[in-house]
Amino acid sequence: MKMTFPHAGQAWVPLSTVFAKAGVECIVPPPTSKRTLSIGVKYSPEWVCLPFKLNLGNFIESMEMGADTLAYVSGPGLCRLGYYSKVSEQILRDAGYQFEMVTFDWQEKGVMGLAEFFRKVLPDRPLRQIAGDIKFGLDQLKVMDDLERLTHRLRPRADNPREISRIWRTAGARVAKAWSPSDLKRVRAELLDEFNSVPLNPDANPLRVGLLGEFFMVIEPFVNMDVEERLGRMGVEVHRHAFFGDWAKSWLFLEAMGLSHGQKVKKAAAPYLSRDVSGDAVQTVGETILHQQDGFDGIIHLLPFTCMPEIIAQSIMPTVTKDHNIPVLSVVLDEQMGQAGFVTRIEAFVDLMHRRRTIKRAS
Q: Tell me, what CATH number does 6's domain have?
């Protein structure tokens, strides 16, 4: 068995470790690139969203490297993500690829679905060891999330933001090689020391922007054209709502125990969106309002073309902007989006936020 999965944000770090510790060869797909997108677009229906096309491209690149077992999510729900595993499997088989598809139903089964997934993939590994592997993988996720949040905070304050980015780009491979709690603790400390060694500008007062929208679009640097790094180098501190560790805590554990999550967000969104329309729509609307209450300078809202939940959120944003006096830049992304146009819109939005801050201070 040679296992692979989509290259979504930092999820590859714990997944590669869990499989490797169990003796399963894990083929991590190459970082998502123009080639990945080109392959995905070639085989995908035109109407389907960008995350699907990129995930399909990831699978094909991994199979070119020898992968024969594909891991994907599935399940019911309003978002099309629930049946993308079936669509992907049919497309790949029609294209002549030979493989096994193993799915994980996170929407209904939560952590039990995750245990079933690993039990299916690792039938000879004792359940106690699988549970320990899952716990350690979640510990790795937390370290990666904490380091990424630190990266967002330090970039706009550093004398050399590129140095912060350079250190961050080494984090995934280093954390993935940590196979024990002591190794993970050591790697974390080393990375923190490197981050803390970068000189900061004591007079820095960066703008603060909430980065919201569809989960995959927000966490995957290729698809959002490295917007977090671009903003950091422009002196903007990014606060992102989507992290895999937070997602795991909410959906795998709190929901599995019958505990609701995100009540504060849902309460804020309720006057505009009182029911769950799937995806991250409620979170997008609610977090926009909460960010305004916390004094943020603006919101960047990213969504893939044809994404129903985020289109609903986008249609609500003008009213939220008017009622709460916070600027929102909604950007619809697909394979046709050019980098120059995207960067121009980001730069104009940053200029807008600077002007608004100047006016507020003068009044």
A: 3.40.50
